[in-house]
Amino acid sequence: MTFRNLGLSTDLLRAVADSGYTEPTPIQQQAIPAVLQGKDVFASAQTGTGKTAGFTLPLLQLLNTTNPNKVHRTPRALILTPTRELADQVNDSVKTYGKYLSLRSAVVYGGVGIKAQIQTLRRGVDILVATPGRLLDHVGQKTVDLSQVEILVLDECDRMLDMGFIRDIRKILAILPSSRQTLMFSATFSKPIQQLANTLLKSPTQIEVAPRNTAAQQVEQVVHPVDRDRKRELLSYMIGFHNWKQVLVFTRTKHGANRLAEQLAKDGLKSTAIHGNKSQAARTRALQDFKQGKVRVLVATDVASRGLDIDQLPHVVNYELPNVPEDYVHRIGRTGRAGNEGRAVSLVCGDEYPFLKDIERLLNQTLAKEVIPGYEPTSKSQPGADQPTKPQRSNQRRSNRAKSQTPSKPTRTQKPIKSGTPARKRRPTASSV
Ligand code: AMP
């Protein structure tokens, strides 16, 4: 299967070739022809599957073939995303794939000034990428006209609902033309998502692809049982001991992310936190510093991590397990991307075992558990703590090694298992959409 077989125009094929893609991903193989045929689409796909190109390429082609060449352009395609980062990323993709076309795109989201966005909209836009709240601000100020929207994309729909955007989405839907093409992308199919799909989509083409990380079997996953109050110490030790240069660490709360980044910095590890409370400028800077290697550890919450496109990230650490098992799959999807091997480490303490069980059930596999000598959990209730041993005094030495950030040769080999089995299928029933 090639991109040429999918019916894309020469200009789009050139842009795809420039991006270095040789073969369409499974979601692209299914979504591109369906969108080109004008169908509504309901797709289960996560970040990392190539879903963005899956809807952007055919959308560009449809708009380009019917380009009305109007003097003043109003959005003909609207792409809604849950976060600013994802909005930026999608807009970048629109620009990348549309570089040989004369369509204009823009992105609007909150947390930054509205004036520049108003000016951009005034100059005319064909494709608008937006987060729901700020889009409604523009609607309220009459700085955007959505009456000509032909194609609506709801990207990471489940996350938008999780973040409480459903009312905003409904308000936006109410002002869009009812005769339009609608594409819905969601990692999960909860009841509210299915209900939304029921009300929005007309005879949709349903697409389901396995998350890239489980399908590609490229992510090594391992669980280290450890007491909660020793997690930070163990993390510093592992980063120093293995000389990890770029680590994405997940916490459950914003406060936890801030505190951990501060503590790691005290351990001598350059760290920064990224979460929804930070300004857009601070988040962008943190991400850039991390990508450029100026910051060694990026501590993130699940919401902030959505839409982060960091290819070839070697290490992801779950400092705390998420209570929504699908978030685990999203998190580890940050590693082992673009054909590279990755490693996902989870530090798990006693009260997190129910979460671990849920995750293992979703993955349909048991994750390897490995107690790190010197960090044995002390509570009897914890798996892996059957024969508790006293923490070794050598920990201080290990922390110091982490502090110095000097490379050190691992003296013991760890043998985590590969993620071998595809995640449980979450196929919507025919009657659900
Ligand atoms: P997405 O799931 O849209 O976030 O895409 C994940 C990553 O896959 C991005 O870095 C894309 O640039 C990349 N990508 C998208 N389509 C392809 C393809 N056909 N071949 C290789 N990489 C791709």
TrEMBL record:
Ranges of residues in domain Helicase C-terminal: 218-379
Coiled-coil stretches: none
Domain DEAD-box RNA helicase Q: 1-29
Catalytic activity line of the entry: ATP + H2O = ADP + phosphate + H(+)
Motif Q motif, residue range(s) on this chain: 1-29
Composition bias, Basic residues: 423-433
Spans annotated as Disordered: 374-433
Keywords, ordered alphabetically: ATP-binding, Cytoplasm, Helicase, Hydrolase, Nucleotide-binding
Domain Helicase ATP-binding: 32-207
Family matches, as SMART domains: DEXDc, HELICc
EC number: 3.6.4.13
Example of a GO MF term: ATP binding
GO CC term (a single one): cytosol
Biased composition (Polar residues): 378-394, 402-416
The keyword Signal is annotated on this UniProt entry: no
Any one Pfam family match given in the protein's UniProt record, by short name: Helicase_C
PANTHER family: ATP-DEPENDENT RNA HELICASE RHLE, ATP-DEPENDENT RNA HELICASE RHLE-RELATED
Family (UniProt): Belongs to the DEAD box helicase family.
Protein name per UniProt: RNA helicase
Organism: Allocoleopsis franciscana PCC 7113
